[in-house]
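FORM 7B: Structural annotation worksheet

SECTION A. Query
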Amino acid sequence: MGTLVDNKFTWVIQNFDSLQSNKITSDQFVVGGCKWELIVYPKGGNKVGYLPLYLKVTEYESLPCSWRREAKVIFTLVNQLSEELSEKEEVQVRWFNDKSYSWGFVDMLLLTKLHERDSGFLVNGQLKITAEVDVLEVIGRVVESEGETSQPLKKRKQDNDFVLPSEVNGFLLLPSQMDSLERIFEKHPNMALQLRGKKQTVKIACMNVLLSLIDTLCQSMQDLSIDDLSQAENALTYLKNSGLKVDWLEGKLEEVKEKKMEEEIGKTRIQELEEKLKCFKQKYSDTEALLEKKKEELKDLKQKCSDTEALLKKEKAEVLATRTPPLALDDVV
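SECTION B. Predicted structure
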């Protein structure tokens, strides 16, 4: 099972610890308009005792003569208990061609460490691998579908019909992207003048980042996160460093950031007030209960006062009844 997000492919292998196969191949995925797949050898490879992991260009036999792919690749064996303990291997630049269509590491991880109990690499028999593939240059292109939002330059096949990219201001775009970018170039015709003459892959990457940045700015405040804004700032810096004139986006980004900060401050204030209200309600409830208790005590005291007054009145009457006139001398003698 594999999933692709941007240029990062995640491959989850179930029941890895009980597999009998010497070689396992992932689902195919498309990055940079090129088809790829991962290959892993569960029982080890040329270097005994280690787990090998490779990236391969698929269907390379059908590619044009002298095809080449320049890519930066990062492999990660994910530690599912602590990502900080994951095993990562990275290469800055690697050329793939008809004589070297696969590449990888023969010693990603010791098999004993992989199968070690509580190592974090195998959890319930599940192994998780990620591959980040950043395609820098393509020679001899057969463009494949990457999904509607992955890459601007691609040839999509549906019902055996191909939808070819069209050119707008020197950029190859899909029909679904043309409307947005035509409107952008109409308002900012000089935005990409410095990209003229640069490789199409560079142009594509810039347009992809631009559209992604605009999508981010168009999100609702509720869906937008602080991390999204941080990535948007990085995207804006990338576009500026690439030569795009995007000053008009800086103001919009600052405006969205301010609104988001206001929302975050408001949410914090709401949370504080909710906590206060909860506290006050609890105090009110406690005080009300205490008041009811005091009312009962007051009622009891009032009854005791009434009973005591009645008893006092009775005693006074009895005392008065015993008071007779004083005896005279004749009564005593």
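SECTION C. Observations
The CA atoms of residues 287 and 293 lie 10 Å apart. The first helix runs from residue 111 to 114.

SECTION D. Sign-off
Analyst initials: ____
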